[in-house]
Amino acid sequence: MSARLPIAVAVDGSPASDAPLAEALRLAQADNRPLLGVFVLDTGWADYIGNDWQSAAGARQGFLDYIRGQLESQAEAARTQFAAVTRDLPSAHFRVIPGEPLEELCALIARGEAEILVVGPQAFQICGRPSVKTLARDLARRASSLHIV
Fold first, then answer.
1. Is the dihedral of CA 9, 10, 15, 16 positive or negative?
2. Closest CA relative to residue 101, chosen from 18, 10, 25, 8
């Protein structure tokens, strides 16, 4: 008998992750599957500002350092949120993945690291990059085993 693939859930440390996290936990417990919490450390900010409103390299680097610090703090909030909800689930794990949120969440399923992805419609909105505002909709177009809560 082969091991069942985990259920993955996008967690961003905000109240917007509460319902998807509860649903993913319910599915994992009901189907006796591992649960994988994921925070994507958005690396797309450099592309976003690259040719736009900041031209001085020093100013741009300072801004990117600030954003990186904010995202790392949010990743820690996501880890804490996930740990609090899954403290009684021995097969729960959490990962921080650097990259483009849409691509990384799709790749997680494509690589066979999870079978089902649970995501809320407001996932990663707290990270602020405008292109992430349509993440749930874009995931629905690309992922075949997506569960939007």
1. negative
2. 10
Interval 74-100: pLDDT, tens: 999 999 999 999 999 999 999 999 998
User: Two tokens at 126?
Assistant: 């707290």
Over the stretch 40-72, which tens digit does the pLDDT of each residue have? 988 876 665 555 555 566 667 777 788 888 889
* Two structure tokens written together for 73: 């703090």
Query: Residue type for 86, please?
Result: T
- Report which residue type is found at 50: G
Q: Which two tokens stand for residue 4?
A: 């069942």
Q: How far apart are CA 34 and CA 23, in angstroms?
A: 14
How far is it, in rounded angstroms, from Cα 56 to Cα 21? 41
From CA 114, how far away is CA 34, in angstroms rounded?
Answer: 9
Give the span between the Cα atoms of 2 and 93, in whole angstroms: 19
Please check whether residue 71 is in contact with residue 40, taking contact to mean a CB–CB distance below 8 angstroms.
no
Collect contacts of 55-59 with beta carbons under 8 A, ≥24 apart.
Answer: none
